[in-house]
Design brief:
heterodimer, A: alpha+beta, Ubiquitin-like (UB roll), DNA polymerase, domain 1, 2 domains, 5-stranded mixed sheet, 14% strand, B: alpha+beta, Aldehyde Oxidoreductase, domain 4, Aldehyde Oxidoreductase, domain 3, 6-stranded mixed sheet, 18 helices, flat
Chain lengths: 204, 719
């Protein structure tokens, strides 16, 4: 089994203070109090169980509920219903989960939701507002840079982030710069042509 | 009544058919709006994960799922039928239990809590070692087929090559793993969003094991994230997902994790060959004496179609299947053909080298051995190969570049050329559709087909736009649910013919009815009417606009059904195809670089030139993948698939493909044949063409695909 989440180290429903209260014995009071202080001190540094968190996604703040092991990708897909970024059920290798974090193309499955706090997160959904489409989207369609389409949103975001950084990229730079994404249907030729066309226009 | 025949228009009259058309769902796909089965997200959806066997061959001794029920968030468990204690495991990754929980991580926690003991049995996962298979009793009885006098032909030959060749198993590696999202919207009614190539064929596969009526099952698949032949079935994990949903009263999603996807989601089986091939002094192939083997997994099947395309008159073909504990095969884009081509056209290329002939000339000299003299389509195809070879050779500058083996060095790199030939049927699949003309002239189409990425929706829209003389965007195409008229699964290059035929038939029938109404109202001869550019014309004179014509059908609109395939010339089968590769190999690193790669392909009538070229480009990249890097590696000791992840199972990246050149071979004689499927043919001959190019570069053959850097270096190190 493979999963992006870290394995559980404790039971999410376990509550140390409730447990200690439940023990109730007077002789244990001092020890219990110490334990309580310890637990509180630990809580200040460590998040465990479910916690609420505000994430800025596509320019809006969203309150989400996460465990420490929850990835940004899981939050985007299953709490915010932003399903453009895909989960290929593998880690840090395919790019179908590419989003931009503070402008940088990032695999959302490798980032814990907690780590994304305070950052500007942009997903593929931000590249289309109604009929107003980012030129990368339009150009992907023009060059038919897609087949099944499953890797396509990740590639679109990677291309957007790449061209933002390298608006006049050469063919060789495109070939190296978009190497972080995998397509199985074989749409690389269209993606290359699309990126090259946009780079010749200054990254559009 | 005018005489009316179902046909495509004369080629010169087409406005959109055969042109470059953007796919109508392109924006949906590129913006993430397209919803795949993994993206179905109703509130309360649970996540299901699987406990799978780590052993390749075992018996389940004991199984206790109860501890999982104490894990927070865990809702329910499902034990797969036959995986109770005493049940047998036949390959690594065999599913045993599915657990549904509130979050994916909690489902994983539940899986880890399950207690299971195995009695580990003595597995066998060797695909290449035929002697070991015999020794272990894993080889099935050999089959032999014989024609002519092989012994005499070899004895009389002017040139022979004897050698070992092979091609390893690869996986389907669908990026959207197999799986579904299941919910029960009403008592006893299942809605399954299934990642499937077979929308119309899968409801019954859910209904039967779940004990409900097939009529109460809806399978929906608007988009599928990769389907290359492995997604025709609901699969036992699909049934598990539906059962868990029923047990919990919640929607459930269950998709295989990547490793399991690769282990059990289907593979293309391997093939290995010991062979002697013979020819006369002119390079005419006279004999083939081969024994090939391989494995499709526990059922012990192996490939067929060897020798491929060029069938020597004197031949002996021996075949042995091996029963292994490897994950089972499923149809992989052009079943048997890529392996058969890789085991035939490499041998022919070596024979050409032995005879110091340009392989182009040897293939050309043997085109009379394509198929059989008795088959008209085989004989037709011989001429197509010759014509396509000429086109491909020009695009590659084959004759300008060709040098003998091991004779072309540029800088630090060894260069080489290689070519190969392929064929495929591509007959239209069975299918039905409904076409509706609304009184305002808008057109809707409904069919229970699906889009694998070949552009099914767009092909339907083009067909109807061409028929009614309206823009592609004015056609509303509805596919992807079993509620629509039934269509066959998308496999074997059957879909584009399978959908365009019925839609053209239904469209013409509707058009003719409307023409009759127009003729009556405007007092014109129905036989003179055409629908072009949003107008109905009589000769070149406008009679009325398309909406005015459509209004004549009355307030209910007009609804016509279409079906296929029919023998009316709209569709056909049998294509040829030629591919040529130019590679450069670095003898220090063993890395093969694609320099240029040419594909020339006939496909009868072209519906969407843009999508057709995309199909071929994609297939060429898949060829590069299985020719150079992708391979399932089974570990003999542990019985496990040891590179079952996207890092170690190497697929090409965007920088690995070189220059790709596609040429659609479509003279009028091809246009008039009707539509033939294109999905499979271009994925066939690339492996052999690239292997031949590498052999040409190195001066010797790397016997098995893929041609990894290690195999290149190993081959170079042999004196």
């Amino acid at each position: 089994m493979q999963d992006k989440s870290q394995p559980s180290r404790g039971r999410p429903s376990f509550n140390r203070r409730d447990f200690l209260k439940g023990s109730g014995a007077a002789v244990a009071a001092t020890a219990a109090l110490d334990a309580q202080r310890e637990a509180q001190a630990a809580e200040e540094k460590t998040v465990s169980g479910s916690t609420k968190l505000t994430l800025n996604v596509n320019g809006k703040d969203h309150e989400v509920t996460v465990e420490p092991r929850t990835t940004l990708l899981e939050v985007l897909r299953y709490q915010l219903n932003l399903t453009g970024a895909k989960d290929l059920q593998d880690v840090a290798v395919d790019g179908a989960d590419t989003v931009m974090i503070d402008g940088k193309a990032t695999y959302a499955g490798t980032v814990l939701a907690l780590q994304a706090k305070g950052k500007q997160i942009r997903t593929v959904e931000s590249l289309a507002a109604g009929d107003k489409l980012d030129p990368v989207v339009t150009c992907f369609v023009k060059h038919d840079a897609m087949q099944c389409g499953y890797c396509t949103p990740g590639f679109v975001v990677a291309t957007r982030a790449f061209l933002d950084k390298h608006p006049h990229a050469t063919l060789e730079e495109i070939r190296a710069g978009l190497g972080g994404n995998i397509c199985r249907c074989g749409t690389y030729d269209g993606i290359t042509k699309c990126s090259l066309e946009l780079a010749q226009k200054g990254g559009a | 009544m005018p005489e009316r025949t179902v046909a495509w228009k004369p080629r010169s009259e087409n406005k959109v058919l055969g042109t470059y058309v953007d796919r109508i769902d392109g924006v949906e796909k590129a913006t993430g709006r397209a919803k795949y089965s993994t993206d179905i997200n109703p509130a309360g959806t649970l996540f299901a994960k699987l406990l799978v066997s780590p052993h390749a061959y075992a018996k389940i001794k004991s199984l206790d799922v109860e501890p999982a029920s104490h894990i927070p968030g865990v809702r329910s468990a499902y034990i797969f039928p036959g995986r109770e204690p005493g049940g047998q495991i036949l390959f690594e990754g065999h599913p045993i239990v599915a657990i549904a929980a509130d979050t994916p991580a909690q489902a994983d926690d539940g899986i880890k809590a399950i207690k299971i003991e195995y009695e580990v049995l003595d597995h066998f996962v060797s695909e290449t070692d035929l002697a070991a298979a015999y020794e272990r009793g894993r080889a099935k009885p050999q089959k032999t087929a014989q024609e002519g006098d092989v012994g005499a032909a070899i004895a009389d030959a002017d040139g022979t090559v004897t050698g070992f060749y092979g091609i390893h198993t690869i996986t389907h590696m669908c990026l959207e793993p197999h799986g579904s999202h299941c919910q029960w919207p009403a008592e006893g009614e299942l809605l399954a969003h299934l990642s499937t190539q077979n929308v119309s064929g899968t409801p019954n596969q859910f209904a039967q094991p779940l004990g409900i009526d097939a009529a109460k099952v809806t399978v929906s698949c608007d988009y599928i994230g990769g389907g290359f032949g492995s997604k025709f079935s609901a699969d036992e994990w699909g049934v598990a997902c539906a059962a868990l949903s029923r047990q919990t009263g919640h929607p459930v999603r269950l998709h295989l994790d990547r490793a399991t996807e690769m282990k059990i989601g289907g593979v293309r089986p391997s093939g290995f060959l010991d062979v002697t091939i013979a020819c006369d002094a002119d390079g005419k192939i006279t004999a083939w004496d081969g024994h090939h083997w391989g494995t499709s997994g526990p059922d012990g099947g192996t490939i067929n179609q060897v020798p491929y395309v060029i069938i020597p008159k004197n031949r002996r073909v021996r075949t042995t299947g091996i029963v292994t504990n490897c994950g089972p095969s499923r149809a992989w884009r052009a079943p048997n053909h890529p392996q058969a081509c890789a085991l035939t056209d490499t041998v022919i290329d070596d024979l050409a080298a032995e005879m110091e002939m340009d392989p182009y000339d040897m293939f050309l000299a043997n085109l009379d051995l394509v198929g059989s003299d008795a088959n008209e389509k085989d004989v037709y195809r011989r001429g197509i190969y010759a014509a396509e070879m000429e086109v491909a050779a020009k695009l590659m500058d084959w004759k300008g570049k060709w040098k003998g083996r091991g004779k072309w060095t540029e800088g630090n790199e060894l260069h080489g050329l290689g070519m190969a030939l392929h064929t495929w049927g591509g007959r239209a699949g069975g299918g039905k559709c409904t076409v509706r003309i609304r009184p305002d002239g808008t057109v809707e189409a409904m069919s229970g087909t699906q889009d694998l990425g070949t552009g099914t929706r767009t092909a339907i829209a083009i067909t109807l736009a061409e028929t009614f003389g309206i823009p592609v965007t004015a056609v509303k195409v509805n596919i992807g649910t079993s509620k629509y008229p039934a269509c066959g699964g998308s496999g074997g290059s059957t879909t584009i013919g399978g959908v365009t035929g019925p839609h053209r038939r239904a469209g013409l029938e509707a058009l003719w009815k409307i023409f009759d109404l127009v003729a009556a109202k405007f007092k014109v001869d129905a036989g003179t009417l055409t629908a072009v550019d949003g107008q109905v014309l009589s000769g070149d004179k406008k009679v009325c606009s398309w909406p005015d014509a459509a209004r004549l059908v009355g307030p209910m609109g007009l609804e016509v059904s279409g079906e296929g395939p029919k023998d009316d010339g709209l569709t056909n089968d049998q294509v040829a195809g030629v591919q040529m590769a130019h590679v450069a190999v670095d003898p220090e690193t063993g890395i093969t670089r694609m320099v240029k790669y040419v594909a020339v392909q006939d496909i009868g009538t072209i519906i969407n030139r843009k999508a057709a070229e995309s199909q071929i480009l994609g297939a060429m990249i898949m060829c590069i993948a299985y020719a150079l890097s992708e391979e399932r590696i089974m570990d003999d000791v542990s019985g496990r698939f040891i590179n079952a992840n996207l890092k170690d199972y190497k697929l090409p990246r965007i920088g690995d493909i070189g220059e790709l050149v596609v040429e659609l071979y479509e003279p009028d004689s091809e246009y008039s044949r009707g539509v033939v499927g294109l999905g499979e043919p271009p994925v066939i001959s690339g492996g052999a063409a690239i292997s031949n190019a590498v052999a040409n570069a190195l001066g010797k053959r790397i016997p098995v695909l893929p041609l990894t850097p290690k195999r290149v270096l190993d081959t170079l190190s042999i004196a």
